[in-house]
Amino acid sequence: SKTANGIMHFRRSTKFCSRCGSATTITQSGHCASCTSCSNLIFPRNDPAMISLVTNPSRTAVLLAHSPRHPPGLYSCLAGFVEVGEGFEDAVFREVWEEVGVRVKEVEYVSSQGWPFPQSFMGGFIAIADEGPVVPQEEEILDARWFPRADVELAASRTSSLSKEDNEKLGGGEGTLSIPPKHTIARDLIDKWLSEP
What we know:
Helices cover 26% and strands 29% of the residues. The protein is built from five helices and nine strands. The chain has helices spanning 2-13, 88-100, 149-160, 164-168, 185-194; strands at residues 24-27, 32-35, 41-42, 47-55, 61-66, 78-81, 104-115, 120-129, 143-148. Strands 4, 5, 6, 7, 8 and 9 form a six-stranded mixed β-sheet that branches. Strands 1-2-3 form a three-stranded antiparallel β-sheet, with no helix packed on it. β1 and β2 (32-35) form a beta hairpin. The longest helix is centred in the middle third of the chain and has 13 residues, at 88-100.
């Protein structure tokens, strides 16, 4: 489970006190590390991140990106960490501009999801931007483009029919669009958009 993964990461990363360097003991059913020397209490961290499905104003196409971490053919929503002092919505405007050179006009909150890889909390959004040129940030994005609804619907039907094991290996290869599997926040955002009239 997500909680178990998050707690195990916390336990591995807090064996020593960040204040004095002494050993810690785990308390509160694994949700706290207590320093054996200075009594400093350390709690699991949640690093805020945003993920956003960008649509055109008519909601007939979405902007999806292919990351170096994705298998060939897999395109997903844009995501990034929220910086210090920044709100989730501000992060959507900034990250979309930085990653693909597209200016977002509106942002709508949809849902959130704990993402313990290792310790993130993701806010999910649908953003609206003019369907214009896309300029992927080379270090983070291999390709990004606007996909019409029909292409995304076809990819969704293909992914929905795969076994759990095949879904986890997802990627249709070059020339075949694949999207994230069910039970991910990226897929929830895509499915919400696909369910619109």
